[in-house]
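note to self: dont lose this again. the chain is below, predicted strucutre after it. 221 aa total, dont forget to put it in the shared folder this time
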Amino acid sequence: MRSIVLFFVLLLVIGCSRVPQPASYAYTEQQKMQAAHHWDVLASDVANQINNSLIRSDYIDKAVFVKPTCGGNGEPCERGQTTQFNEAFRDLLVTRLVNFGVPTSNEKRVADIQIDYKVQVVYHAANRFTVPPGSLTALTALVLVLRQAPTELQALALAAGLDVMNSAGPRNGHYEVIISTSMVADEKYLFRTSDIYYINDKDFWHYQDYSTGKTIQMVSL
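---
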């Protein structure tokens, strides 16, 4: 009888086994795009990487063509055709490629290597904030200092410390963007990069293409 009871207890323990505890990532930094100058910084970095990729692949004399999302050379996009970022980034990327000495065509030719880019807007429904480095260590030190104090005082100190830590942590907003740029030759990727940035919530429309609704929505359950 005892063995049967132990057997059922074992089944109960197995059935109620704990799942892995959620853990956050180590503290890192992520840049935030807030100005057209930041778009130009990205364009310069991408153009530099494209130039280096062409040199490594022995395509140094090969012309490239940056595919437009609308309009054409010298012709601005019409209102509602594309986003402000899409139009501006292409112009900035072409300028930077020319500055690096990369042969850049103003019209698509069969022999040209085409450069494509796309933007994905990511929306997070949950409120998110960043805990600055050292905050948890300081909070732990505060609790250790008060370890001899009454339990109620320790609880109040812990709550106050958490409030200070939360208020000190910057809120990241609800929107991010993923900007991917690629270059293909002979049906193979010569170059591809994806960059992720925070953006201001009120500026999401700089990147959102309303005609396609390309938004990735992250909803917490």
